[in-house]
Amino acid sequence: MITRRLLEAPDGRGWQFLAILAAAAVVVPVLNVFVPQSSSFHVTTTTVALWGKYLCYALLALSLDLVWGYCGILSLGHGAFFALGGYAMGMYLMRQIGTRGSYAHPILPDFMMFLNWKELPWYWYGFNHFPYAALMIVLVPGVLAFVFGWFAFRSRVTGVYLSIITQALTFALMLGFFRNNFGFGGNNGLTDFYDLLGFSVRAPKTRAVLFSLSAVALGLGYLLAQAVVRSKAGKVLIAIRDAESRTRFLGYRVENYKTYVFTLSACMAGVAGALYVPQVGIINPSEFAPGNSIEVVIWVAVGGRGTLVGASLGAVIVNYLKTMFTAGMLAPYWLFVLGAMFVLVTIFLPRGVLGLLRRGQHPGNQPSAGADPSNARGLTPPAASGLAGSRASSTPSHSPCVGEGRLAQPAE
Amino acid sequence: MLVSSAIERPRETTPSLLYLNGVTVTFDGFRALDNLALDISHGEMRAIIGPNGAGKTTMMDVITGRTRPDSGEVLFDNGSIDLAKQDEAAIAELGIGRKFQKPTVFENHTVEDNVLLALEGDRTVRRNLFWRPNGHTERIGAILQTIGLKAQRDRLAGALSHGQKQWLEIGMLIAQNPKLLLVDEPVAGMTDAETRTTAELLRDIARSHTVIVVEHDMEFVRMLGVKVTVLNDGSVLAEGSIDEVSANQRVVEVYLGR
Fold first, then answer.
1. Structural domains of chain B sorted by starting position, each given as residue range(s) with its CATH number in brackets
2. H helices then E strands: how many in chain B?
3. Dihedral (Cα; A201, A54, A29, A98), 10-degree rounding
4. Does B113 touch chain A (CB under 8 A)?
5. Rounded mean pLDDT of A120-131?
6. Chain B CB contacts of A378 below 8 Å
7. Model pTM?
8. Which residues in chain B come in under a pLDDT of 70?
């Protein structure tokens, strides 16, 4: 029944997206592994690894779009969930190194030997088993998001305040992971991996398979997210995004919906991080950097907020441009380009690149569809409307009117 | 004497659907509600009027859990439930629906989906993730028929006119099938023809529901033809038929401003 649910969710564009992913998952590895290097059809391992990375970013963007585009939760800390998933994978890969490390200790990773640690910290137990590590990849970001959401959404923290707390969350985690005594390799992080399930992570064939798995994960993530947003619960999420207070007066427990979607999104981000780590070969605390999380927001805005496919597209476009730019002499100007892109897209393409492609079609459930010209909210650029969302609900008991900008009129 | 009568009234046998007594709400020293008392019987339709700042919206906020009273009783369903202890979602589930002064429909949802979201039913995440339509299409169709928006079924609510949004809100209220409907300024900004239609609509709804209408428009209140409560400075100034309160000298002074 769940399969049927997933399969009836995508629309026309969704199927195109899935078809492209499926084709890439098959064709790219074949061109890499079976077509000889002399052929002009050969795809280099570097390219495979690079695009595998883009696909992981696309899954991360998709997970952010689920909460931001559909529920108005502008998380500026999604990089934290991505990094936590990555660390869980990194810990498994570290434990697979075994005696091949510089210190050749069968259990303790090199960095622990270097710190003169005598035994494995308790939280490293079990990571030598892949099923356990796989569980942690989903569970650790999920539990953190659940606990965070439980407190934040129950206290009705919304809008900018919530965004700032999510920034603080990822920043705090970064500082923690930078410390050597935290037990995750300090500022060097986890690296020098050998095996993943017995396959060498450096072998081109493994790289090709990881690329395919990333494409599959993105496709499944899309199906799952699409099934959620197309369900009646998805309609409730959009209702919360557009008129949180009104939704509450209809009897919906807004905090439960938010916690649910935030947790699901964090789990997806964790999976993205886990697939990312073996492909880039390292995970370190800089993945928690607040700037990373903000960049994810830009990907989503560029691609088209509240479209899922657009978010993935935006992640690939921006990162492809980043690779192009930072490779050449224009490298120092990349941040200006990124900033300009965000500003220009916000002003001229409020529905992102996908909005361009969809021009003239039924706007559907777009956050900035602007169906009613008199509705200022409809014309607000996506990022700004997310930031400004539900200011009124931060003072629930004193604002008699629903909606924005009508705070604390004492009585009518 | 007043105090003792309040204590003697046994909670369980309060025969009213909604019972407010001694409700006081203060915002930064401003008394929005001052010892307010209100008694709404089962099946009644009541109009509440009063000048700006009389406390009409604050009263709605207290009933729906948006504002907690500083003191006083807010009892629902024969006095069995203390609304002052519940939050918005819980109160909505108890069966109190509210239409806001400024129409707030879900602009990015179709008219049909707006009614669907309001339709009574399980509000939990799990149920709504795996929700399937089951006779809802007909139910929604009937509601849209009542509020005259059948032709707009698949349009985005944001594209409706102001009057149509007000009716959609009333339709969403009907969909919730509440025991008590709170309708805040339903005809604000409406044309005369729309106002007449709305009055008919509300009279129709009042046949099967308990309704409180807050309104400025005296002509509209006259069309409803129900008992009127006049609020001023956060408490009740007068109560009676529209002709009685219009004849009341104090009401004329504070409300009509003459």
1. 14-94+226-258 (3.40.50.300), 104-181+195-211 (3.40.50.300)
2. 11, 10
3. 10
4. yes
5. 91
6. 107, 158
7. 0.82
8. 1-14, 255-258
